[in-house]
Design goal:
The structure is a single chain. The protein is α+β, with helices and mostly antiparallel strands and 171 residues long. Helices cover 46% and strands 15% of the residues. The protein is built from four helices and two strands, in the order H-H-H-E-E-H. The protein has a two-stranded antiparallel ribbon with strand order 1-2. Residues 1-6 and 162-171 have low confidence and may be disordered.
């Protein structure tokens, strides 16, 4: 076995105060003061297909969660039928008689085993998981864009002035 070094990291920096704010909760444009980098990040987030797919998945999970909540309510149904019967028997007078019927139903599932309650919780968990996955993807895209930008600036390929301009490499 290998002994792992245990780090002594306090749960609280200031006694009685927990800081639960993560970079995902912050406005990313407040982190970077460079206007060129901010524009690049905005464009990356807007045009990234994985981010668009994650946002669509969030909407889908939200709708499925609403549907799962709806199953706890009673269902009401109605059906209306209309028809007419014609009688044209040999030797009898032709007759036409209308037929109408109306059916109404009311149903409510009793949640004896908790399947509706657990289904609701599952739907909520899946929705929240999709939201957190999208937040993680957003943080990753922001970080990767910023890293690439600063590497290009460090290599001299970009200027940190107002507009990014490529520099010609020295020969």
């Amino acid at each position: 076995g290998r002994n792992k070094e245990r780090r002594n990291i306090p749960d609280e920096i200031i006694a009685g105060e927990n800081d639960t704010l993560t970079i995902a909760d912050m406005s990313w444009w407040e982190l970077y003061s460079d206007s060129t980098l901010s524009k690049l990040i905005k464009k990356t987030l807007r045009n990234n297909r994985n981010m668009q797919a994650a946002e669509a998945h969030i909407k889908q999970m939200e709708e499925l969660y609403r549907v799962s909540k709806a199953s706890r309510w009673p269902t009401i149904g109605a059906q209306l039928f209309a028809d007419h019967e014609t009688n044209d028997y040999y030797g009898e007078k032709f007759s036409k008689s209308p037929e109408f019927s109306l059916k109404a139903s009311l149903g409510w599932e009793i949640d004896l085993w908790g399947s509706l309650r657990w289904g609701k919780r599952k739907g909520a968990a899946e929705y929240l998981a999709s939201v957190e996955a999208a937040r993680a993807m957003q943080m990753t895209l922001i970080a990767e864009t910023a890293i690439a930008y600063f590497e290009l600036v460090a290599l001299g390929w970009l200027s940190t002035r107002r507009h990014a301009t490529p520099r010609s490499p020295a020969r």
